[in-house]
Structures
1.
Amino acid sequence: MLRNVRTTAARLRVGDQFPQLKLTGISEESIALPDPSGRLTHVQFRRFAGCPICNLHLRSITERLDEISAAGVREVVVFHSTPAELRRYEDDLPFSVVGDPDKELYRRFGVEASARAILTPGAWRALPAGWWHAIVAAITKRRALLPAKPTNGNLGLPADFLIDGDGRVAAAKYGEHAYDQWSVDELVALTRNRENA
């Protein structure tokens, strides 16, 4: 859920000032951006609740969350789904998850949708493992395999932003296909590069 978010489409660039936002996570927690304590924040824009490609990536984030936290980074993940959908599929993620079913944040920061999200071979390499984990989660967590009609469809593209404690965009990536995002290694390297600068 969003509070007081004005929508103007523009891609973020390194050095831009990230706006101060108050978001509400799917657990009803308040999320301030940038981080009030001055930590770095990795804001991820993913696709839809239950997306097997997104969840494969988020699994890698979860598995190495201690390393990410040790690098001084807080994770916030935005989906273009409703909070109710997200609670069905993403309620066990160990970081803040935000539903943006009206795509206000997506429009504001120029995060797009395109058929190339799933028609690019780069996205296909994630599908076998993504489907396998989706099947396992459906069985072990007794949830639907995939949403039949995800809110805003399945053509969303991902985006990643690393936001300084002072609100400056330290790094930005707009994905070219559904599995085009920073790996954990790339994220941690970005924090090291900042320290060495």
2.
Amino acid sequence: MIDIKYPIVSQIEEIVKDIPGWSPVDQLYTLFAMGYLTSDLEGDIVEIGSWCGISASVLGTVARLIGNTKVYCIDLFPEKTDWKQNQDGTYSMSVTIENETYVGYDQQTVWKEPFERDIAPIYEKYQGILEIFTESIAKKQLQSLVIPYKKFS
């Protein structure tokens, strides 16, 4: 829970410190501020592209603060078996949802070094990104506010 006696940026860093991902804290602070400063508007929050839940945790924290708001997170949430190494050594993914196949990183592939450093280690403990997303959201006690959808946006 956010405490107004302490710097919000420091609290955001604490919220996301154990979640894998690449969102810089300044962008997370901006998400927090945008969500909080527009709390007088009706409606819920929709996040397209959620990965492991860093930004979803921040948006969920906003939803908890303002009340009567949910965060709907839409992502392909790829599983370990969805990734393949291309002939040039880079990586792409292909996710099938309800008999539809969606390809990611096919035009702009993930280089081998960043894949092995940042993505592959996630799959050493988890079979899929939805699994770590769900765990991350539960650790923050946001599961009633942050709802994932394994879908194509």
3.
Amino acid sequence: MSDEPIQRRGRKTGEAVAANIRRRIATGELPIGAKLPTEDELTEAFGIARTTLREALRILEFQGLIHIRRGRGGGATVTMPDLARLTEPLAVVLQLRHTDVADLDEARLLLEPHLAGELARNHTDDDLAALREVLDKATAAAEADDRDAFGEAAAELHVTLIARGGNETLSVVSQLLHTLILHRYTRAAHQSDQDLIRRAVRSYRRLYDLIDAGDAANAASHWEQQMKWVTGVSENDLLNVFDRDA
């Protein structure tokens, strides 16, 4: 493992070492699944004490960038951070800011119709298969009048649409928002009746057909109207993802 001088000014040495290794992970110099050199090799490469190195490794482990296996044959392995660990802190921040459901819907309304159009313009068979799978879940839940299952399917459809829209940044954002979106659509399902849920499924099928046909303008327009309709029939309470029975 090649090394560069560690910049210690303005931060602790352990933090500087962690930042150095983090940069190498981000640039692919240390790919996912790679094992870091041994403690002896790292302390020699960075010119630091073992306690300082362990501080750096704890920082990286907390950030989800490495997994440390203790004992004989152990060591540190580079891992992909689990976004699920970030969803609840994000939800707490939004709740502390007294964010309401209308604010969440407004943010999503700026994104999803555009991505629906992009997906219609440029999609693969895998994209269509992913949408069909979610659509089947929503259909089954609507016919069974299972509100919880329908809320889960509706949230999954919105997240799938963003994830498949061709923008990696928004795909990550959608994963971070998944908990909030799930709670939002579960509440909406319980505030609706079976006729409204079936109407939503018909709208989902219409979106699928427009995407499949490559009709970008109408896909975007249709999804914008669908999202506005859901907002119109739902309550816009404060976000409260931890009150599961609300």
4.
Amino acid sequence: MALGEAFSFLSGLYFRGKLAYAERFTRPPVDQRGVLVITTDRGLMAADAPVGPRELREFGTVDIRPDHPQYREPLARDLGRLSQDADAEVVLLGSVATGKYVDVLLEFMGERLLFPPEFVGRGDMSRGALLLRAVREGKELAYEPVAGAIRHGRRAAKVGPP
């Protein structure tokens, strides 16, 4: 099973929205890996990379904390490679409210780490719905750098019908 398919099954609407959006709007970096997924202990993996039950169980044993070596070191390795491409930008479709992803990503990507400001004040399910709607309408969201951005805010309005 592909990593993206497995994560979509395990986390439902939210990851399904992230994956559909990324597949629709990605502009692959020089290494042409396309849609990349942050994993707990293997750094960045292609969404279409094959995984099995053993890998999924192993993912569940590692804490996602910027100071946890099992999480940080593989992610830092991959971000180090990605950051060598001066044109590479990373659009974070995960939570920007906590540092578990943002801290390591910012360290390597700096101003090239982007996010949709419409995420501010939204929970997982609302972000997933927003992403699926953007895919359905064929309209890419606007991005801004995470560095210096307001990452916490009032609860956003619900995503209504198109």
